[in-house]
Design a protein that fits this description.
Helix 20 links the parallel strand 11 (about 470-475) and strand 12 (about 500-505). The chain has about 650 residues and is α/β, with parallel strands linked by helices. It is elongated, with a radius of gyration of 28 Å. It contains 26 helices and 17 strands. The longest helix is centred in the middle third of the chain and has 21 residues, at about 295-315. The protein folds into 2 domains: about 90-230 and about 300-380, 3-Layer(aba) Sandwich (Rossmann fold); about 400-630, no CATH class. Helix 3 (about 40-55) packs antiparallel against helix 4.
Length: about 650
């Protein structure tokens, strides 16, 4: 925990390209002659610069320089100013497409696959989206483009006038699940259920324990019996058919502050301020009508009764759900008590985890700041086979996600002003990372600074300057817990996982090297990152370093490195020894340590002390970190 807390990363989406329209007649030839893409400009600039600089260089140096220039031109991470958010659909698109579906509605519930979701690979897992009370199946419209790249995605559409019972909806999904499992038995099936859909997903999982299912439950309606929504059922039954009522209006009729808040939440959350600003008055006027067409009085009454039966059925089968599940809950859901329900479900589902979106309302997937794919990647919830492979199932960050990472660590970089020095093959030390090998496998072995302060500047610079993603060997507590307790929530380590960290283990190390990755290893581990007063720059390496043998097996280059500057930016004032003298803190440290996996239990000396704690550090700013990367050590031909 303490070794990683200091350099938290954040996340986002990917790059959007832009293009202009050319003119006509003579304007066409002129624009065609003058227009150049960004890549062409970069290439032209590189060629021009090279023609001047390369005079007097040896052929080997010219080759190396051109290689570096080509790497920079092809690096999508190097220019943060050009990174913009991926072209996601807007709330306006949701209402427009809902309007088209409602207009041609009829028939039984059915599956459809969005056009934006056709770019997935052959080994992509199947994702079945089960809608909430709206029933359109368009609840993930803002995520279709990114989901379609990593999933074979199907959406369930329940027509407005359809009156299929909950039990029959479960059977419909179950038939699809079983059919797809028979067709592709080795790929997992993701059930993403929103509200009502969450109850369907739970029932399907309970009825099919033999199928490899992964559940993602967004504000599931299992808490319906404790919500104010059920108060609407008797009111709707008494209302005459002549009154044209919809959900927002009905909530306004019911007395009680919680429901008035629910009405406000529906309006605010469906029409967030940043979205309202880009909608025309005609769009705004048309949205209530779309909602009324989507949930007329008789449909709303049916859906509420459906929610009631769905909640009862799902709750009665929770004991039989043994599959992996992620519960996505909103902190400001005024329709359902989702945050409290998430805790209840977490205690009842043995393989579940919670993701809390504190500022979000009930309609989670329609909000601007929610990115489902990023959440999946950060939580390492994506797998293509029966078991998660931390190496082969990893999906690198998009340029926009990387930009968010840089923004969240801007203060660390500004405070440390990192300088990186590397060593060329001829032994010359240069500023920058020109001496770092481009092709893997490469193993970086170095000293772990207090709290891992050196990580963020290093990993960011490698990706920006050399387009090299350095994948760290990390402590298992960043990925799972032995039991729940006082440890930081796993979400605190999201972006380490997003940047490719893997739990320390022999098999993971083997897979990284065999896949020609750039691997970051700290032999001193947690003991080195949580050192005591007076132990600055002291190594706590085990007597036997097996990483050399493993690196030699794959002919990996070993790059030793060191970092100085820790004492320039902070002063350790409250260390492990100080804390262990206080009985309450001593007990707290013991509890934290028991929650995480213990490493090096068979080692001798201080390296075996893996007690988890957070030292107290006083900042001394500004300061500077200096990184020195030694000459790469060749292991090719030294296999033993």
């Amino acid at each position: 925990m303490a070794a990683t807390r200091a350099c938290q990363f954040l996340v986002g989406s990917s790059v959007m390209s832009t293009s202009g329209n050319s003119g006509r007649d003579r304007g066409v030839s002129l624009s065609q002659r003058m227009a150049m893409s960004t890549e062409q400009i970069s290439s032209a600039a590189a060629t021009t610069t090279t023609s001047f600089v390369e005079k007097g260089m040896s052929s080997e140096k010219k080759k190396q320089r051109r290689k570096e220039e080509n790497e920079l031109i092809s690096n999508v991470y190097w220019n943060l100013d050009e990174m913009t958010e991926e072209n996601r659909k807007k709330l306006k698109d949701y209402f427009e497409e809902c309007k088209d579906l409602i207009r041609s509605d009829g028939g039984p519930p059915r599956w459809f696959s969005p056009l934006e979701c056709a770019s997935h690979t052959a080994d992509s897992p199947l994702l079945l989206f089960l809608p909430g009370i709206d029933g359109t199946g368009l609840g993930l419209i803002r995520h279709h483009h990114k989901l379609g790249k990593i999933f074979d995605m199907w959406c369930l559409h329940i027509p407005v006038k359809d009156r299929t019972s909950f039990a029959d909806l479960v059977k419909l999904v179950e038939r699809t699940v079983r059919s797809e499992c028979e067709r592709s038995p080795d790929r997992p099936i993701y059930l993403v259920g929103e509200s009502l859909g969450g109850c369907i997903a739970l029932d399907v999982a309970a009825r099919n324990p033999d199928i490899d299912l992964v559940l993602m439950l967004a504000n599931p309606a299992t808490s319906f019996n404790r919500s104010q929504l059920q108060s609407l059922i008797p009111l709707l039954e008494l209302m005459p058919d002549q009154l044209l009522l919809n959900l927002p209006y009905m909530l306004n009729l019911v007395s009680g502050d919680p429901l008035r808040m629910a009405l406000e939440n529906v309006v605010k959350r469906l029409l967030p301020l940043q979205t309202v600003g880009v909608l025309s008055s005609q769009d705004l006027l048309g949205m209530p009508q779309v909602l009324a067409d989507m949930l007329p009085r008789e449909t709303l009454l049916w859906k509420l009764q459906l929610l009631k039966s769905a909640s009862a059925s799902a709750n009665s089968h929770l004991h039989a759900v043994k599959v992996q599940a992620m519960i996505l809950c909103s902190g400001k859901d005024q329709l359902l008590p989702s945050q409290e329900e998430a805790q209840r479900l977490r205690s009842m589902l043995p393989k579940s985890a919670i993701r809390l979106f504190e500022e979000s309302g009930h309609f989670l997937f329609l909000e601007d700041d929610v990115d489902l794919v990023t959440t999946i990647k950060c939580s390492r919830f994506y797998r293509r086979g029966k078991y998660l492979d931390y190496v082969s199932d990893y999906i690198p960050p998009t340029p926009y996600e990387f930009m968010k990472i840089c923004e969240s660590n801007r203060w660390v970089i500004a405070a440390t002003s990192p300088v990186m020095l590397s060593t060329l093959e001829d032994g010359k030390v240069v500023r920058g990372l020109a001496g770092i090998p481009s092709e893997g496998p490469v193993l970086y072995v170095g000293y772990h600074m207090l709290l891992g302060f050196e990580l963020a500047p290093m990993v960011i610079q490698f990706l920006m300057e050399r387009n090299i993603l350095v994948r760290g060997i990390a402590h298992p507590m960043m990925f799972f817990r032995l039991r729940e307790g006082n440890m930081l929530d796993l979400a605190a380590f999201d972006t380490f996982r997003l940047m490719g960290a893997v739990p320390v283990s022999g098999p993971n190390f083997y897979k990284l090297l065999s896949s020609k990755s750039h691997v970051l290893l700290y032999p001193g581990g947690m003991r080195e990152a949580l050192h005591r007063k007076g132990e600055e720059y002291k190594l706590f390496w085990p007597e036997r370093s097996e990483f050399v043998r493993m690196a030699s097996r794959f002919g990996a280059k070993i790059v030793p490195f060191g970092v100085v500057g820790e004492d320039d930016v902070g002063e350790l004032v409250f260390d492990y020894n100080d804390q262990m003298r206080i009985p309450s803190l001593r007990s707290f440290i013991k509890e934290l340590t028991e929650e995480s996996v213990q490493l090096r239990t068979d080692a001798n000396g201080e390296v075996s002390n893996q007690d988890v704690h957070l030292p107290g550090v006083l900042p001394k700013l500004p300061g500077r970190f200096y990184y020195y990367f030694g000459k790469p050590i060749e292991t090719e031909g030294n296999k033993s």
